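The instructor's notes for this session suggest beginning with a concrete chain rather than abstract definitions. Hand out the sequence below and ask the class to guess, before any prediction is shown, which regions might be ordered.
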Amino acid sequence: MKKNLVLSAVLLSITIGYSQKNKNAYELASPNGQNKIKFELVKNAPKYAVSHGKTEVITPSDMGFLLKGNENLSSDFEVKSVKNTSFDETWEQVWGEKKNIRNNYNQLSVQLQQKSGNKRKLEIQFRAFDDGIAFRYVYPKQNVKDSIFIMDEKTTFNLKEDGKAWWIPANRENRDEYLFKDAAVSTLDTVLTPLTIESKSGLALSFHEANLVDFASMTLVNTTGTQLKSDLVPWADGVKVRVKDTFTSSWRTLQIGETPADLITSYLILNLNDPNKLKNTASYFKPYKYFGIWWGMHIGKYTFWESDKQGATTKHAEEYIDFTAKEGFHHLLIEGWNKGWTPAWYENHMHMFSFTKSADNFDLEKVVEYGNKKGVALIGYHETGSNLINYLKEVDEGFALYKKLGMHSVKIGHVGSKLNMKENHFGQFGVNYFRYILEKAAQYDLAVLYHESIKDTGERRTFPNMVSREAARGQEYNAWSEGNPPNHLTIIPFTRLLSGPMDFTPGIFDVEVKQGFPGKRVHGTAAQQLALYVTIYAPIQMMADLPENYEGKPALQFLKDVPTDWEDTKVLEGAIGQYITTVRKDRSSADWYLGTITNENARDVNVALSFLDPNATYEAQIYADAEGTDETHNPAEIAISKKTVKASDSLKLHLGGAGGTAIRFKKL
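After discussion, reveal the predicted structure:
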């Protein structure tokens, strides 16, 4: 059967997937014919354009690079050869939001060579998928023996029409921890990807990159009108990329949907990464939920450092382990366990932490042993403070300690505006550092959770020990800042989450944060916090609140039930910045789960249950905003009810302002 599928795809590439308009122009279509890429040389310069059906999406746009010495690698080319291929397979994720993913595309590879000077060669590979397009540059080994310094990338994306872009700024002190804003594409400055756009044509678009290895991250800058240009994040000396002999850029990606919801169930980014290189990940990592000695530090109940309010003590750890085991969970994160924490640790960006020595009043070995007796595994924690000179000296010892103690997960933080006080997290230095640590962790059977990290570009397919990351403005901002506005959670599924899993740390029941800093709170309801376990995907999900805020609460049952590994995902409806309704099927049972959330506006949502098995009956276990509840009126009140339903039914749900509903559909 698989051979037949591949053969069909090859035939399709001959009839639809590829055609030549003239000597220097070539066209590539996706398997369903909807997305088309046109490539041509115009006055010896490479250009490409993209269309979706009858809609022009990108008009002819520039390609290539500027090298050191003002050498132009974007003109004076001739086509040496062209090759078209087709590919169709279905592969299985080790863990994920969807178990089986189809990877089906047509590819056009164009070999170019400059006609004068160093006669440099450059290959451009294009792929057309039914859910978007991608291209990358491959600079092969050639007669010119020198180091290559890329000073600029010439790639542009000339959007045919303006549209509303959902964006956060690039190259700022807080990295990617900013609130998304919406503005016309024509008004943007330099922004991070994923960049999601609601085009005037009605299409939903998202620009990003995939399989970023030994290259600089791509940001986008508006240059003129609706033209966006690739702007590579530089080294401290201004060079964008430095390599020897050869390079392969990340894939420049454009996901295309008829609606914004289509973008969420596109797996184009994953499909552009290499298959799994780690065959043993499943032996030490299974998706899970975890508690943490964490929120208490952020709200000021505890300190990260040694003090009379120290959070990471052996006594507190054993209390948290007892609670974790009592409630039937098996993982606990403890931050601040090690030497080096001070009240001003985050102000000194070359701070010196130890990754092997326990803080006063904390005994790592004793806590691990106590956890083992209770069936609770510890999650390791390394805060580098962006002082990688110090961290790289100790990382092997730190990882070896965790392996010796039987620990298999590590959270690694990088608080600071620059790595080593000079390099950007998103530059080639940062790209290579984060990949190096990921591969190093795999050698010690460690799954990695990055905070203050580079963006996700799909490497979890190749290295499934890359389980989650922050890379956005998370829950902790609700503890000590003005907080995240209600619409934040209705924006990130269509933007940040398109790149991959996020450790948002949901699950706050005490949304008014009565033990916290005066006036600080979560800008939403407790029912909405439950729904986030479905609307925000991650294979590990924190239950972020204090144990005493869960104790005796019936809604804790939903957190016990909701899985973190899924057979399938569907987005039933949604509008960026307004609301979203997502359903996911458990990989280990016949149950489905629903999460729906709204912005500051109350909303009635009518959910058709056609995603359920038509031959079965289900018990809908509903956790909703209590009557009259919204962000400012009894936001912690959750109404729990049950109802017998079938696939032919629909449910009408009322969401309070900044509210939500979470449902387990238990197959009877």
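Then share the key points. The chain is about 20% helix and 35% strand. Residues 388-404 form the longest helix (17 residues).
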